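Form 7-S
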Amino acid sequence: MKRFSPLKFVSSLVVFLLLVSLFSYYSADAQSKRTYYVHRTSKLYASASSGNYIRYVPVNAKLSTASKKSSKRYRVTYNGQTGYVYRVNLSARRTTVNRYIAKTSYLYTSRDTSKSRIQKIAVDKSLTTDSNLNSTMYHVNYKGRRGYVYRVNLSTGKTPVTKFVVKTSRIYKNYSHTKRYATTIPTQTQLTTTSPQSNRMFWISYRGIRGYVYASNLGSNQQYYNNTIPSGATGYIAAGGNHGIWSKPYGLYGASDIGKAADYVNVPLSIKQESKVGSTVWIQIAYNGRILGWVHKDIVQDVSPHLSFANVKPDNINNNIYNAPSGKAIANLVPYAQLKLKIDYISNDGQWVHIRKYTAGTSLGWVPVSNLDVENAAGKQGNIINVNYSASITDSEGPVFDDSVNFRGYLNQFQNGNSGFIVTKEKMVGNEEMYNLSQNGQSIGWVRSNTIHVVKPGLTDKDYVFSLIPDNIYNGTGDGLSADTNAKINELGLYNGHMLEIVKQSGDYSFIKYNDWYDTDGNDIDLGWVKTNDLSQLPNHTAQFQNVFSTGGGNQQGLAYNSDKGIYYVGYDTGNGYGKIVPYVKNGYGQYTPDNNHVVEDKFGHACALSYNPYDGMLYEVSSAGPDPVLYTIDPDSMRVTSTVIKDMPYVSMMTVKDKDTLIMLTQASGSDAFSEYSITNKKYTDPHAHKIKNMGVVQGMQYDQSNHKLYYLANNYVAVLDDAYQLLPNDIFHFSIPSGGPAQESEGLTIANEKLTIGFGNHQIFQQK
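Output:
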């Protein structure tokens, strides 16, 4: 019988316990490996507690972890990078995500090289996927078929599609087209829809009515209309360049290039018709009674070089406006006595002119030119200023004029080798700068600003200034390098509060230009020499703004913010006196997207005078497209529109809510901006035109801040600030150039969102103070 050995027993027990321990360890470790899928986009952090993150991990990315289930962050590896993600962002199952077809797409059998097409899927069709959202192709289910679509063809929201009515269409109340509205939509009307493009009926909005129309009544062809110009209208081609003359407006079927616009620069042309194809306007021209064809409207200076803007002479305000030269009286000049007017056509050798409201662009009619005080460039009288700039030719076919603005020839006829060009003088003609160009000491003549590139010194952000001092403006000495204090040419007081720019300095004087239109060459007009001490620095706040979101396409104008619901409203001018207002709301990814189910369209005109009233929860808009301004009140929930005609006010440029019952309205008149307060309840002005400041440029937005009782006024690319007495606060004025580092965009609308100034821009971007 074997004797019991304590040593052997202990050794065996140790081995046994060790094996059990190892088995338990590996078994537990194997069981702790768990698989998850990202439920919402998650950051991959560098450690379990660090705020630094390595990258984003997309929805439906597959991850494994051995972290304790109770951990706040799980340790994972994704695409070879190890880090930590929040447990709450993970799910045991894949997440189904909704997407829409943004570009006509195909359903494929697989995502490898052997894939083949199954079928085509139309724009705005809805799909669901549980694929990793970083995948090139998503696995989807469409009409009972499983397959793959390319991610780049999908979007998170529906895509508005532009259509044009090709057959007079009825609007139906339901998709089954059993009930309809009395309204019909005429041909060539532009509509937008977010219905799947394979649908039989499309959901649309037309002048405040939302409903369905037959898809077969709509087409993708561009909008087209003709407008006959009254007999006798004439114009001049301002720049020919490479523009052609077309048999029909370009973009229409059968249009062909039949001539060169450059062959008719500076000759008087008869204007027969105006046409619009898409967003481009074309003009039919004739010379010596012969129809030449159609040219792009932008190259036509619609009036003679000496006419542009005007206002009614005080002694002629009771005279009439006519439907045509020597035609039928259709209105009276009285309502327009204080407005700046734009002349866009002349007739009868300049004895009759056609006028429009300057800012709104509303056509008024024809008047004898003797009834008007005609201005050159809004009061800038065209003094000849001595300057000294280098220049290069950008349009060799640009016209050259003598001192009396008589045509001498084209620039390519005066070029002499490769010698440089010098600009020695400049002046205003109409609303455009003209330069006297020299080469090798010989004057070539006067040329338009759009035919040469002028190199001016300065032009840095630190050189933006403004002035509130009514001192003198002087010409330059003969060489254009310093001030000639014996040659006064204007008053600095005409530009009080405007954004100015120092071009060069000499001694105690600075040569300044008027920043007239968001840094556009040819419209930023040189003024002359002033005392440097009369100027104050204008801060640059460009770096203080950041992009918030992008808007849709179209002629963007107004901007408002619903502080109660966090919704932006963007106004668009859709033409012919109509506009639309589009709400932009945050989606599940924190991005602002259009709420196409609540778009409202009506006679909103420019749709620029737009403001939200936090006291009654209503959205207000003022349109001056018609003979009298109209105040529109819009319920943001139902988007129901009510209107009130505003009496005793010929034109409203901009509007903002001041308090529970008061709207501030701005009228841009000739030479001044007039502020009036309007009672919503009484529907009357409390002090019409009681407060005035000099014109500060083209007003683009206005917003009253109830928290600090300041009125923010947006003009071109700067913001001026006024107090409750409508007095400028010089220390609060600033300028900007957005986007930073790129061509400055035209500002379109101003509001306050989350206590920060927010500005819309013509490139369909919304920027906000940081």
